[in-house]
TrEMBL record:
It is found in: Cell membrane. Signal peptide: none annotated. The chain crosses the membrane at residues 28-47, 67-91, 98-120, 132-150, 155-175, 181-204, 211-229, 269-286, 318-339, 351-374, 395-415. Keywords: Cell membrane, Membrane, Transmembrane, Transmembrane helix. It is a multi-pass membrane protein. This is ABC transporter permease. It comes from the Bacteria. CDD domains: TM_PBP1_transp_TpRbsC_like (cd06580).
Length: 428
């Protein structure tokens, strides 16, 4: 046998280090969006006025607990950090598993630079910003959790907006007539279940297209609540539409933690229920047998059926439990925050909850984070109007919805819904 000379071509890269073309396109697309925001943040920093940016750390306290920062130097530092994070993402200077931290770093630096620009020479109510964020995010979290339960089981729930409306209406009427907040919350949850039952029956039993069905249910809820409001609540507003708003309950010890305590632990019972709901849904979906069955019927219902799982029964249970959460989310608009019911008062928040579900990658924790992001954007536009930031009011009103579109379109990344999401199952 003749000798064979093997030429050394160097180390062969590991398969994990080879970037697929689709991954490269996604990285450049998301990285380009990140770089745009980073440059905007740096531009804002350059044009930030000299002087102090004062941040109010305690709601209602205008004299004490103020944090003053040199506006332009801090904004420039944050803007530069944002650019570094975006460039590092585009050039893959950080392992892929840590890329999410780069996006978080960019978001924090952009928001910080923006706030320094807006608050230069003024006082920005930071405590009110985070308090309002939690208020706006609470129904979104509950609605997104309802969507997680439904879609993990393979049922698309476009009807969250309708469940919000019915829950808000029911809570207002029951609280006004009984004077009981507990009864109002129970009634709101029950009304959410009734709406969910319509969704379940028509989508699971009668195999109606779930997207069309969801839209129809939203229109139905809008019409029925508007009709009842005109016929009864306007005629007797004092008796039927004057619910008491839930009072805040301070948790001893935790409520006294500086800055964080008053925001997180001096809240209404409905906000505390939201905390519990996030933990319970996460635990149930990923740590219990029922949760495993829900995820199984959402991914591969036929395989689940072959091992003895009752696919339709599991889907019914998931959708009905989701109705409880969506009904409570609707109750927040009346007994949890505003008081009286008004037509179309949910203002599309059910659809934003659906966007939070997608942005959160069909995971309860991710959906909660996305809902907080949308709540932050909504509260920010009102705070900027208060401090008279030189941004047109119309643009500020657009900001939460624009942030929703950008976040879902650009930052969700390569994710997919449960494989059988929206697909009716017919037993063979």
């Amino acid at each position: 046998m003749s000798d064979v000379t093997v030429q050394d071509v160097g180390p062969v890269p590991a398969p994990a280090a080879i970037e697929a073309p689709a991954d490269r396109v996604r990285r450049l697309r998301v990285g380009g969006l990140m770089l745009v925001f980073a440059l905007i943040g740096l531009g804002l920093a350059i044009f930030t006025k000299s002087g102090k940016a004062t941040f109010q750390l305690v709601s209602g306290d205008l004299q004490n607990n103020l944090l003053g920062l040199p506006a332009q130097p801090v904004a420039l530092l944050l803007g530069a950090l944002g650019v570094l994070a975006a460039v590092a993402y585009v050039l893959r200077r950080v392992p892929q598993k840590y890329s999410g931290w780069l996006a978080i770093s960019l978001g924090v630096s952009f928001i910080g630079a923006f706030l320094c620009w807006a608050a230069a020479g003024k006082t920005f109510p930071l405590a009110n910003q985070f308090q309002g964020t939690l208020n706006f995010a609470t129904p979104l979290i509950l609605g997104a959790l309802a969507g997680v339960l439904c879609e993990r089981a393979g049922v698309i729930n476009i009807a969250i907006e309708g469940q919000f409306l019915v829950g808000a209406f029911t809570a207002a009427v029951v609280a006004s007539t009984t004077g009981s907040a507990v009864a109002a919350l129970i009634a709101a949850a029950a009304s959410g279940v009734l709406m969910a039952l319509l969704l379940a029956v028509f989508s699971i039993k009668y195999l109606v297209n779930q997207v069309v069905l969801g839209v129809v249910l939203v229109v139905f809820a809008t019409g029925i609540t508007g009709f009842l409001f005109d016929q009864f609540l306007q005629e007797d507003a004092a008796g039927l539409n004057t619910p008491e708003v839930l009072s805040a309950v301070k948790i001893p010890g935790l409520g006294d933690i500086p800055f964080v305590g008053p925001i997180l632990f001096n809240q209404t019972a409905l906000v505390y229920l939201t905390y519990i709901a996030v933990a319970v849904v996460t635990f149930v979906l990923f740590q219990t047998r029922w949760g495993l069955r829900v995820r199984a019927v959402g991914e591969h219902p036929k395989a689940a059926d072959t091992v003895g799982i009752k696919v339709k029964r599991v889907r019914y249970s998931a959708v009905l439990w989701a109705g409880v959460l969506a009904g409570l989310g609707g109750a927040f608009f009346t007994v949890g925050y505003a008081g009286s019911f008004a037509k179309d008062m949910t203002a599309g928040n059910g659809f934003i909850a659906l966007a939070a579900l997608i942005m959160g990658r069909w995971h309860p924790i991710g959906a909660m984070v996305a809902a907080l992001f949308f709540g932050f954007a909504t509260q920010l536009q009102s705070q900027l109007q208060i401090i008279q930031t030189p941004i047109p009011g119309e643009l500020l009103l657009m900001a939460p919805y624009l942030a929703t579109i950008i976040a879902v379109a650009g930052l969700v990344g390569r994710v997919r819904a449960p494989k059988a999401d929206g697909e009716p199952y017919v037993t063979e």
